Amino acid sequence: MSLLSAGDRVALVSPAGPALASKIDAGVRVLRSWGLEVTAPVVAPWSLPYLAGSDEARAAEFVAAWRSDVAAVFCVRGGYGCLRMTDLVPWKDLPPRVFVGSSDVTVLHAELNAVGQPTVFGPMPGTADFVGDPLAQARLRELLFEGTRSWTTGTPVVPGTARGVLTGGNAALLAASVGGPRWEPPAAGAIALLEDIGEEPYRLDRILTQLLRAGWFEPVSGIVLGSWTDCGDVSAVLTDRLSGLGVPILGEAGFGHCAGSWSLPLGVRAELDAGAGTLTLV
């Protein structure tokens, strides 16, 4: 994955829900304090208020940003909408760029990783998880500018080691993608990253059961569990649904919708030592 340097130009895009202009402005100020030149999206109302524009408009903005003279593309927020525009993007024709996003953006990570583009699952500059969280900002900046290669975090659930390509993201979005026209299970030996927000235990059970029955976990050699914010106590569900897979599992790894979230790369090879609580790029 390429690194950023002071003076690089970056573009902000809105592929999902609309962000508040005040949040975008605050996020832009942080990115500019890193020495980046930032192009922000235009905030405009749309007939469906949970979308930042029509599918065609959001896809066009996304593609235009990738084809412009920028080093990176940042999503301003998640929410809902990325899945609606995936068929409108010529994924194989996009030039290499650093890409940052999380939550609903999980489906865009999958598309980019499938065509060989590594990405970053991290907090987005139009959200409180970025604007109001200096530690999450610092961790994202470290990954983007210094190239973090190892993380020590989490609690061992099932000890063991695994080596493979990092994949995954938001569990609900992974389940929503199952059966789509370009859906594919993870690569053989993949290490799955999973997190979510606002899913009660029975709903998380449904999400994981759907992924299990679709065969999504069959190629997976290890699992890293992030935050489960506003989901209640999901420990029993995670144990029931995942412990039978017979792979190493690291829990409470501190990425996703949580304070001080780690930013983690996707689409790159790593080694997981669940017993030691380490994830290292290889």
From TrEMBL:
PANTHER family per record: MURAMOYLTETRAPEPTIDE CARBOXYPEPTIDASE, MUREIN TETRAPEPTIDE CARBOXYPEPTIDASE
SUPFAM superfamilies according to UniProt: Class I glutamine amidotransferase-like, LD-carboxypeptidase A C-terminal domain-like
Similarity annotation: Belongs to the peptidase S66 family.
Domain LD-carboxypeptidase C-terminal: 163-272
Organism lineage: Bacteria, Bacillati, Actinomycetota, Actinomycetes, Pseudonocardiales
CDD domains for this protein: Peptidase_S66
Protein's name in the database: LD-carboxypeptidase
Keyword vocabulary terms for this entry: Carboxypeptidase, Hydrolase, Protease, Serine protease
Domain LD-carboxypeptidase N-terminal, chain residue ranges per copy: 10-122
Matches recorded under Pfam families: Peptidase_S66, Peptidase_S66C
